[in-house]
Amino acid sequence: METVLTYVVLAVVGVRLLTAARLALTGRGRATVVEVARRVRWSHVWPVPLVLTAVATVATLFWAVPGLDWGWWTAIGGQGNPIAGTTDRTTGTVWEWIIPLAFLLLVLPALPLFALAEERMFRQGAEQWAFTRRARKVLAFGLVHLIIGIPIAVALALSVGGVYFMNIYLRRFRSTGDPREAVMESTTAHATYNAFILTTGLVLVVLSAFGVA
């Protein structure tokens, strides 16, 4: 039963990623991707390793708490999260790297669109919120990743990234007074952060394919 579930999940994720990739390469989706890509500066890049280190540290601490290592994807035989396309069933086979490679390449062009959607959901309008609401949104940003099967400890740790993106949004709003500009700035930071993770994943998959990793 678990094998069937993992295959069903991978099929659904594959279709969703293909749809997102097509959207990112056409029409308004492409325009958004290009706009975000053109905005990237060194100031968006250098903080990423620091933020990821903080996320990893918090995740490690939470992982030690009983029960927080649970995620529905690993519970049915997956590894990591469904977007990586890795399962216990593909370990040791050629699919161990083919599926992750295909999925990661599909998600790559859509990264700015995913980032924009989350920034609109969790940061847009933050200049009008009280501190407590901002804190709830930061926590919700992390916990929403439970939907894609990420373990609870990791989802909680992703809230650290939420703090970083919230700060980016508020700082740009204070300097410009323009909510759209603030959203696009936090989207750029978010997309850069995700691109760093994705690129690292792609490198590891390629190394694995050649038996290096």
Features:
mainly alpha, 213 residues, 11 helices, single chain
Could you walk me through the main structural features you see in this protein, from its secondary elements to its overall organization?
The structure is a single chain. The protein has 213 residues and is mostly helical. It has one domain (2-209). It contains eleven helices and two strands; from the N terminus they run αααααββαααααα. The protein has helices spanning 2-24, 27-39, 42-45, 47-63, 72-75, 95-107, 111-122, 131-143, 152-157, 159-176, 179-209; strands at 78-79, 86-87. Strands 1-2 form a two-stranded antiparallel ribbon. Helix 4 packs antiparallel against helix 10 (159-176). The two termini are 30 Å apart. The model has no long low-confidence stretch (mean pLDDT 89).
Write the layout of secondary structure elements.
Elements lengths: L1 H23 L2 H13 L2 H4 L1 H17 L8 H4 L2 E2 L6 E2 L7 H13 L3 H12 L8 H13 L8 H6 L1 H18 L2 H31 L4
Helix pairs in contact: 4-10, 6-11, 7-11, 8-10, 10-11
Query: Based on DSSP secondary structure assignment, what is the total number of beta strands?
Result: 2
Which spans have pLDDT < 50 for at least 5 consecutive residues? none
Termini Cα gap: 30 Å
Give the mean pLDDT. 89
Order of helices and strands: HHHHHEEHHHHHH
Strand content: under 5%
Shape: globular
- Helix share of residues? over 70%
Total number of distinct structural domains = 1
Main beta-sheet strand count, sense and barrel state:
2 strands, antiparallel
Rg, rounded, reads 18 Å
Report strand order across the widest sheet.
Answer: 1-2
Please tally the helical runs, counting DSSP H or I stretches of 4 or more residues.
11
Structural class: mainly alpha
